[in-house]
Amino acid sequence: MEETKVKAIVLGGRDYKEKDKLVDLFTLEQGIVSVLFKSVKSANAKLKSAKEMFSFGDFIYATGKFNVVTSAEIIDTFYGITKDIKKYYTACMILEIIKCVLPVGEQNVNLFLETLKALKTVAYDNADNLTIINKFLVVVFEGLGYKFALNTCNTCGCKFMNYRYMNLEYGDITCHNCKTLNSVEISVGEYSALRLISITEFEKLSTLKLNGEVLNKLFNLLCMNFEHRFNKKLELPDILKT
Ligand SMILES: [Zn+2]
Q1: Which of 69, 94, 136, 205 is the S-S candidate for 127 at Cβ 3.0 to 4.6 Å?
Q2: How many whole angstroms from 170 Cα to the centroid of ligand 1?
Q3: Domain 3-77 CATH (choose: 3.40.30.10, 2.40.50.150, 3.40.50.1370, 2.40.50.140)
Q4: Pick from 178, 184, 179: which is nearest to 225 by CA?
Q5: Which residues surround ligand 1, an ion (CB under 5 A)?
Q6: 43-71 pLDDT, tens digit each
Q7: Ligand 1 centroid vs 181 CA: distance in angstroms?
Q8: 147 alpha carbon to ligand 1 midpoint, in Å?
């Protein structure tokens, strides 16, 4: 039987038959792949922890009608995530976003690496959770071809003066002259938060101290853009609203 080895993050799973679990893996090599963990529901099952959401490691599976996992070596379980309810919801949101934007079987190396960085930041850093989610949305737009132009209007190329608008039809930022009926104004506060979040790596996010209300508004703006790009609505759990 042919075996495939992948580096992957567990996106989540559901019970299958009595003792098995069907799990979605976000793999470095093949994007999202569905695999089967056999007999993992008993307390002493060998692969028990490997099937848990957020687990990151090397997985080997036999390819067939079901891709049956034969071994797994976990590199990181992102332990901190399950110890803090806000961190848990933040990490769930990150995985949810991946499931919304990435078609099954489509590889995206950059997005895989950014997802790992995001989960690490959630688990081990002291960064604000909503800042991490906003950063992840910016990274997702970038990774899928909708990078924001932050200095100049994406339509006419002129330098931004006072007003900036999110053009929801194209997912970019324009000046006052180039706004259309599908544009939403970005306030100065939202813009400066967006700018800081865009240029700050995940590893440094904990150094940003941004206003909670601005972060909520920025999230709503990015969500509108997300909905127009990917046809999916994101809901921020109440516990993460600041
Ligand atoms: Zn313009």
Answers
A1: 205
A2: 14
A3: 2.40.50.140
A4: 184
A5: 153, 155-156, 174-175, 178
A6: 777 788 888 999 999 999 999 889 999 99
A7: 14
A8: 16
